[in-house]
Amino acid sequence: MWQYEAPLRDMRYVIEDVLGLPAQWAALPAFAELDADTARAVLAEAARFATEVLAPTNANGDLEGCTLADGEVRTPRGYKEAYRAFVEAGWPALACDPAVGGQGLPQVLNAALYEMLAAANHAWTMYPGLLHGAYECLHLHASEELKQRYLGKVVSGEWLSTMCLTEAHAGSDLGLLATRATPAADGSYRLKGTKIFISGGEQDLTDNIVHLVLAKIPGPDGKLVPGTRGISLFIVPKKLVDTEGRLTGERNDVALAGLNHKLGYRGIPNTLLNFGEGKYPVRGGAGAIGYLVGKPGEGLRCMFHMMNEARIAVGLGATMLGYAGYEASLDYARNRPQGRAMGPGGKDPAQPQIPIIRHADVRRMLLAQKSWCEGALALELYCARLVDELHTGAPEAAAEAGLLLEMLTPIAKSWPSEWCLEANSLAIQVHGGYGYTRDFPVEQYWRDNRLNMIHEGTHGIQALDLLGRKVVMDGGKGLQLLAGTINATIQRALAVPELAGFANELAAALAEVGRATKAAWATGVAEEALANAVPYLQAFGHTVIAWIWLDVALCAHAKLGQGAAADDEAALRGKLAACRFFYRHDLPKVAAWLQVVASRDDTCRTMAEEGF
């Protein structure tokens, strides 16, 4: 039976060769002492933890799920022990500021860590998955008093954190939030309301949970300010702490109201939480005690750090679930004999059976998975590099990195969650009927991955963000910067005869994106432009992945020219084949999607409800 192994070679190839990060680290004071050997050691230890400690808990976590007893959640066997080992090894603090107890390593290494964890056990990984986003949010926006109480525990992982946004009546429309936070005499707030779809809202891994909750402060008339400008952010701990961050023994009025029973991610509870409903009356029982983070009315701005990290984390998880399925189906295809070699007259019964990887259609499915998953992996690590540049680069470089990150976040979230899910579907197909059974892991990978198209903003939400805001903000400045970055790769590839054809195809696709953007907004009517935002998102994403693959192929071609060891040469030629596959099988889809956008097709917008 296949067992998960972290793809260290592919990660090192992207980090060291494609992105050239060791040389960049040497030029940045924050990472000047980090060399390639140290980074490799960190990745190797992360891989060991993922494969030896975490992966063995994956199957039983899915089979057992979380259980509810007397209002308390019990996690699956092995989860607590794995989390204890994770904290004791210092992994939560990897990319946090040393001034607050962190290790100060690049976000790229943190991203690689969580990629490996997600493939080993995605449900478990969701527990600490929000820790770094919570750290960023509190580090940037919390008062010194709140940092004293909570930040160190979040950095170390001693306390886990949640992100409480969604309410049943509001869905993705955060302006409709009804949870209210009433000021108290001691400077705290009392919160009342209900939040749904809270991953890890109750668990037994840590003795406290730092809930980060969006709520509205009533105005002088007692009414809530409509829209998103009235939203504020609060820390609402499960258990209260003193000014030194020690537990007081008091339970805050945050109560588990129920669990959602899910298709996948069964090892982490998806909860409904009641705030201030009186199950745990505290200090007068007027609501759950919360503490304002940042300024009133600026809750979304404060939480965007956490939300954007969460969106990229969704892309990371989707990528690596797809990647794990690819590796499992590749192993199966190499070892499953079926069919016989073809001779001039057809199959020769005298010949021995051959492994199914010898069949062209099986190789098609494997190449599709490889091109989608390895392309997505390179994109996610590139975005992590942008995060590092944003925080540590010179002002001009940091500003450009921030703008590129704005442009790419919708793609980094949505593209892997669609195409790496499709990779999981093909992994099942490669396994045949066995892929549909629990005897092999690929059916769980598909179930776990299916949620990634939805949470942290559906495809529709990401598409509206991209076409409705990102590509037109500041007169299209972000789109121009991204196009210039892609064109720089195109120019390099045009000088390489073997890749010049791909460069020209990418240039044509990029030009079509620009024309479709202008055509979509030709009338200036948002309803017309955004009716086909999802095809635009799909075309934009494919163009970005084609760019990423061209960069990967340029590096592979250069390394082959320098002379590589036999196993490395095979891997490099495999990357060139995956690039060729993507350009021939996937990039042509861009034209059809953009034709719908450019024509401002009104089929979906004008369809009468009665016609459904």
Tell me what the structure shows.
The chain has 612 residues and is an alpha+beta fold. The protein folds into two domains: 1-337 and 354-457, Butyryl-CoA Dehydrogenase, subunit A, domain 3, CATH 1.20.140; 458-602. Helix content is 55%, strand content 13%. The protein is built from 21 helices and 16 strands. Strands 3, 4, 5, 6, 7, 10, 11 and 12 form an eight-stranded mixed beta sheet that branches. Strands 1-2 form a two-stranded antiparallel ribbon. It has a two-stranded antiparallel ribbon with strand order 8-9. A hairpin with a 2-residue loop joins strand 14 (342-343) and strand 15. Helix 15 (477-494) packs parallel to helix 18. The protein is globular, with a radius of gyration of 25 Å. The model has no long low-confidence stretch (mean pLDDT 94).
**Helix fraction by DSSP (H/I, runs of at least 4):** 40-55%
Classified by CATH, the class of the largest domain is Mainly Alpha
- The value of Rg in angstroms is 25 Å
Strand content range: 5-15%
Please give the CATH architecture of the largest domain: Up-down Bundle
List unreliable stretches of 5+ residues: none
The CATH topology of the largest domain, please? Butyryl-CoA Dehydrogenase, subunit A, domain 3
Measured distance between first and last alpha carbons:
47 Å
Annotated CATH homologous superfamily of the largest domain:
Butyryl-CoA Dehydrogenase, subunit A, domain 3
- What structural category arises from helix and sheet content? alpha+beta
**Count of separate DSSP helical elements:** 21
